[in-house]
Amino acid sequence: MNMEADLQGILSLLRRHIEIRNRSWMKRIHRDCFIGSEAVDFLVTQGLADTREIAVNLCRKMAAKDMIKKVTDTQKNFSDSYHYYRFKEDDVVGSALGDNNAGNSNGTATGQGGCKWSFAPHTAHNSYVLDIGLAEELERAVAGASIEARLHALKKLRARVREQAEPDAPDWLLSQSTEVNNTKISVFQRKRPRGDWMNVKMTGMAGESPVGFVKGIMSFNKRKQWEGMFEDGVIVEGIETGEAPSALLTEDTEENTLLGTTLPVDEASGVTPKLTSDGAAANV
User: Could you tell me which residue ranges the DEP domain spans (predicted)?
Assistant: First the structure.
């Protein structure tokens, strides 16, 4: 039996299935943490440990190999308690992504398979359209040589964005409705099933051509004007998917058509759909 491989497999299951998010304690925010007792719950309910004591011992073995790290210096051994812990992959200090979460580092962060294009742990855990499984699939696909694998993974992401962009997407609650220049603008919000995160979707008529609107989304300078919390962006590398360029950006596109849009903004991942000329979600 390869104990380390077994522990790595259990850790991967834990990281994909228990709740990981930012948490506060004593006026401090601890990023990307999980609760010890919830990890124990998962190990027992999934049959990975017969008792809670055995589950705790498994977690202590992972902690001894630095797979799990304590969040505060007051903690000793891993315990079946409400104490916070963090997986090594999500540790701000130990993670290759730690210095690059804002896109402002001079270093290169690598994802699955060594690609330069990757998701920060904070994004993968807290995004509404992403999860760890899809984030890692995207990283592996971009790092690999298969264009088909990249397109397959991106289509999954696009499908999730489209689902939330639909007018009848469930669980969105109207929080504000106003009229600007005779145009009705509605703001919808929905709370994530877990974690203290709120997603926002705005619908209305954008007084700009489809081409101008999409180019604005792609421009970091334009986004600074639109989004008060947006600081900066960085293009790490292009992703070849074998697709033809969007017809939306060709020269013969109607420039003066007003665009009716429904845009879900995932604040954790920054994912926003491109749009067709009739306002339907197209590509990410």
Answer: 14-89
Alpha carbons within 13 angstroms on the beta-carbon side of residue 51 total: 3
Instruction: Say how far apart CA 176 and CA 172 lie, in whole Å.
Output: 12
pLDDT in tens, 48-81: 999 999 999 999 999 999 999 998 777 778 999 9
Q: What is the CATH number of the domain that holds 12?
A: 1.10.10.10
> Is pLDDT above 80 for 226?
no
Domain membership of residue 158 (yes or no) is no
Please count the residues of the chain.
Answer: 284
pLDDT digits (tens, 9 = 90+) for 260-270: 444 444 444 44
The domain containing residue 209 runs over which residues?
Answer: 168-265
DSSP E strand boundaries for the chain: 21-25, 28-35, 68-70, 84-87, 173-180, 183-191, 198-206, 259-265
Dist. CA 86–CA 22, nearest whole Å: 10
Picking from 164, 256, 242, 169, the residue whose alpha carbon sits closest to that of residue 206 is 256
Q: What is the DSSP letter of 96?
A: T
276: left (phi over 0), alpha (psi -120 to 50) or beta: beta
What's residue 257's pLDDT? 42
- Is the whole-model pTM more than 0.90? no
Assess if residue 208 is contained within a domain: yes
Q: Which SS3 state, helix, strand or coil, does residue 130 take? A: coil
What single DSSP character describes residue 226? H
Total number of domains constituting the chain: 2
Cα 1 to chain centroid, rounded: 35
